[in-house]
Structures are given as structure tokens and as C-alpha cells.
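Protocol step 6 of 9: fold each sequence in the batch and record its C-alpha cells directly after the sequence line. For illustration, a two-sequence batch is reproduced in full.

Sequence one:
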Amino acid sequence: MLSTNIISSSLYLIFLLSSHLGHTICQSRSSDKTIILLAGQSNMAGRGGVINDQWDGIVPDDCSPTSSILRLNAKHQWVVATEPLHRDIDTNHTCGVGPAMSLAHAVVRKSFGIAEVGLVPCAVGGTNISHWSRGGHLYNQLVRRAKDSLRDGGTIQALVWYQGESDTLLKQDADSYKRRLLKFYLDFRTDLQSPMLPIIQVAITSGEGRYIEEVRQAQMGVDLLNLVTVDAKGLPLEPDNLHLTTQAQVELGEKLAHTFLQFLPGHVQSNAGSFLVQNDAANNLYNNFLYTALIALILIVLRLQ
């Protein structure tokens, strides 16, 4: 009778401890803000729904505000994200819908382990790749906002880069684009002290000049670890034949989310979305605890026999 009571008590204790530890692990995982940096020019800043410098104000459901998606505003404060996402960053232009809200919605929806996404808008319309060189205003602002985004906790999981339309105007800019872009990526990773920072770049589908294909080939020719290209070619454009429509931005955001989830450890894509594989450090700790507790219980039983 005593043996039975001891075994029952031991099992109950293991149950309580495992429940508490499992709950703690889930809290730890979900409370870590997933931070995504956004940089580039107008199609990243968002011109969806903007015609003749007027935004139509239409926000698709995939871009609607929710408490699980935040943005770092111009004052470096986390607030609930709303379109236009870049309105206080790209202040000299009329902003509309961009790809980032759709991206964030898809990440939260498809990923079991991500409960909060923090978006850091840094894109500015009409900028050449040379404007993003190390030491320049836009580059310094990107680095500063990236570092400030970490003050309240979280992890920078990726840089999403959509730029190049302005570099289609002059042949010398198109010819030097690959070299400049590679240097930008390497410099940024170095200054962020994150040499393997995932980078998702968008291959342009439009441009201000005639050298669109040259810039596209330069983008696709950059060879770096943890760099993936999402092609915007074929997505519908506004009447200006330069900027993506609102629906195109939503579709691009979905593509970016699919690519982003490939970078996350322990996530597997499926037709229904993604699910968390039990192989991260927290889950290993949890499994090791249960295994140790089971061995201890077996030893108790053997001692009592």
C-alpha cells in the first residue's frame, strides 16, 4: 500500500512539474518578439492604392491592424501596426499599402511558435543603391532603428529588401549594382554583428529606366549564405507602371512569409501552413526533464521491490 502511494505521489509530482515547465517554455517562446527589418524604396514603403499622389484608403483584411503585429514608429516606439506602414518614415511621398502587413499576418497565421511580430519600416521612395551605402543617412538610420528595436526584447529574424528601380536609369548604376548591393549586405551584417542574418530580397519587376533586366540579373547574381530572392515579376502594377497594386502587395507579402518561415529553426512548411518541430533548445530541455523523471520513477519502483 505504501509503495502504491509513493508511486502515485511521484507520478502526480512529475505531472505538476512537467505542466509548469511546459507552460513556462511556451511563454518564453511566444513572448520573444519576432522582428523584421524593412528597407528599400517605394515598393517596399508601399504605393498600393496610390494614384496621382492620393491614397484610396482601402486596407485589405490581410493588412488590417491586430495586437499581434507592431511597428516601430519614427519616435522608435512600438505601436500597433496600421497602414500605411511607412507614413512617418517616407515622409516626402504619399504612402499606401506595402507588402509587410500581409507578410506579418501570414507569419502569425502559419507559424505555431510566433505570437508577436515587430515590423521596422526604413524604406524611402526614389532612393538609389548608393543612398544606402555605409555612413550615409539612410544606412545609419537603418542600423540605428534596427538596434533600437531590440530595447524591449525580441530577436531580429530577417532583413527584407526591395530596391533597385532607381538604378535602372543609368547604365553605370545598373552595371555597378551587384557590387554595391553585395557591399551593402556585408556592411549591414557586420555593423549589426550578425554575419548570418537572413536577408530576403525582392527582384524588381519594374523600373524608372531601360535597364530593368540588368538590375534583375545583378540581384539574382548576388551569392550569399542566408540570402533568398523572391521574384516580383508578373505582379500587377498601378497605372504608373512602376508601383505594385494593393492586391499585388498582398500577394508579395504571402510569398515573403513563405520564404521567411524557411529560415526559422524548427519550422516545416506544408500545404496547410507550417508547424513547429520539437527540436529547439527549450523543447530539448523539456524532453530531457521528462526522461530524467521517468528514470527516477523506475529507480523508486525497483528500490521498493
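Sequence two, same batch, same settings:
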Amino acid sequence: MAAMALADLMVCMFNVILQNIFRYHILNSWLSYTYVCRFTAFIQVFSSQLSVWFTVSFTFDRFISICCQKLKLKYCTERTASVVLTIVCLLSFLMNIPVYFRYEPYSIIDDIPWGCRTVSGHFYSPAWVAYKWINTLSSPILPFPLLLLLNSLTARHILVASRSRRALKSRNNGENSSDPEMKMRRTGIILLFAISGSFIVLWTPITVINICVGVTETPTFKGSNSLYLAIRIALLLMYLSSCTNTCIYVLTQRRFREEMKNMVKYPVTVITKLFK
């Protein structure tokens, strides 16, 4: 959960605040240096991929903890979580290294490289084309079926266990007896499909655009305002997905809601004590 929150925070900082606010509204700043521009481009792709695969890793962890009781004791440990997160970070880092070399200086002023523009071979080189397709497949095309499969299997396991529990409870206590455990399981099913649904809905537009651009080999906008607007809206939805998953998971936890209430009440309590 903390890793998911950190990855989503990185997306908000680098992709939203740094790239879409500071860089566009503060011209000719240190962000315009080519080396800084390259680094921020790398961090943006890296953080987005971490956000996606941390969500998949957390979903897999929930699947193991609910559906595989024998494997749960070995897999659901702090050491395993650390190893999985380290592997995901390392693979994402290595996979996105080519992003740094995708850009070249837009201009050179006083021997200082300024700006970033895509290298000319990026759109036609077989190596770059293959890398783009691999990157698109790894995030988010591959996570789509993985999230659906894991959450569907988890929901199926919960439904089967709930059906057996309901039958046992009805024989012992009657049909109208309330069962808090059943309510928790129904909430769990809703939570699982909310995660899958929000991820798929918010990532689908940018995925479709990437596939269409890759298939049609469209290197530039060619004056198409509608395509530019579609890409900006798709990116907005993609960035939004980086915060919804963590919010959905955390806000449904009773302990987190209690801590939020305490945080809101704390200033009022301090002010009240000062005036007493």
C-alpha cells in the first residue's frame, strides 16, 4: 500500500506538477536544459509504470491471501513484499532507460543544449518501433487481463465461500439473521471490481490512441487539433487513475477513516485547549 501511494505521488509530482504546470508556465527555466528534460521524461514513464505494476502486485497479493491459504503463509510476508517491489522497480528502471536517449537538444545556445525533441529515427527505426510496442504491451495492455483474471478469481472464491456460509447460517439461525462477515465479503467484491473497472476505463483511451498511432504510423499531429485534444484528455484520465486505486483501497479501510477523523479533529482540539 505504501509503495502504491509513493508511485502515485511520483506521478502527481513529475507528470502533473512538474511537466504540465511548471514546464509550460515557467519558460526558459532549468527544466528546459536538455539533460534535465531527458531525466524528467524518464521519470515520468518510470513512475507511471511503477504505479501500474504496483497495483497488479498488490492485487496478486490479495488473491494469494484470500484464495491460496497454503501459499499465504510463505508468500504474504514483509520479506516477499520487499523482494517483489525491488524486482518491479529494477525491471521498470531497466526497461525505461531507452526513454532517456529518445530525445535530442532542440537548440544549442552558448554551447548549452536547450529543450528536447524526439530523435528523427524514433518513428521509423525498427528498434524504436519494437521498443514502443513492447512498452505499450507491458503497460497497460498486459495488466488489463491480469487484473481482470485475479479479481475475478478472488470474487469467485468469495462468492463460493459466502454461499456455503449462508447455507450454514440459515440452518442454524434462520434466514433473517444478519451476518457482518457477509457484508464485509460483499464490500470486498465491490472493491475488487471497482479497482479493475476504474483502471480499465481510465487507461483505455490512451491505450487505444497509442495502438492507433502505432498502427497508422502517425509521427506528428499534422495540424489535427482533435487528435491533440484527444491525447490531452486521455493523458488526464491516465494521470487520474494513478490516484484512484490507492484512494479506493485506503478509504474503504476503517482504521484509515478513523485516522482521518482524528486528523480533522486535532486542530479543533488544540484550539479548544488554548482558549480554555
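Proceed to step 7 once all outputs are recorded. Observation for sequence two: The mean pLDDT is 80.
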